[in-house]
Request: fold
Amino acid sequence: MKINQLKITSEKTILVDISFEIKHALALVGQSGSGKSLTLKALLGMTPPNLHVSLDIEDTIDQKMISLVPQNPFTALSPLTKIKKHFTLSQSKITALLESVGLDSSLVDRYPPELSGGQLQRVVIALALENRPKLLLLDEPTTALDPKTTDTILKLLVELQKKMGFLILYVTHEMATVAKICEEICVIKEGKIVEMGKTDDILKHPKEPYTKQLIEANFFNRDFRK
Reply:
């Protein structure tokens, strides 16, 4: 899937102007305010009305074929609504979907506050896969989770991708998690891509000072530089 150009402007100010290709699983990494979230909103058709978006995608895809796994599973679901009521599928299909993400079907009659963070994130992933998307957007999906749960969720996403065949665009500033799910990285700064390439190459041999700063800022990435 090729994004030949994504341009987001506010009056005469260019906020994002990027091009990239998602071959399998691509990470879009950068500091807060770099344009990552705006990119996701543009792909979902959810940018604020005061912004102008120009999007050229070299693929047959529309917003209905794109799903999002949001940052915080604790705020993604209505706390007063049972799990099954969040879905639009039949009971049997909900059960099958929950089982595909490693959850027991008995959870359908429980409320979100009764579930752990890991369970909630699995429910959110199941919801994102409800319409069998062609592209799955991951918006810092492990930020609210502990390290052990983070590893479990990332492994689950890799397994689901193998089974269902969707593409992944993983937006994060946590460089330590990128190698666990993505083969390629795009580094974004102030709405521009400053470096892109194979994950292993960039983590071990970053060329741009900005990329080096992102890696150095993450304690776990010291292992990547050995």
User: Anything to note?
Assistant: Confidence is low (pLDDT under 50) at residues 219-226.
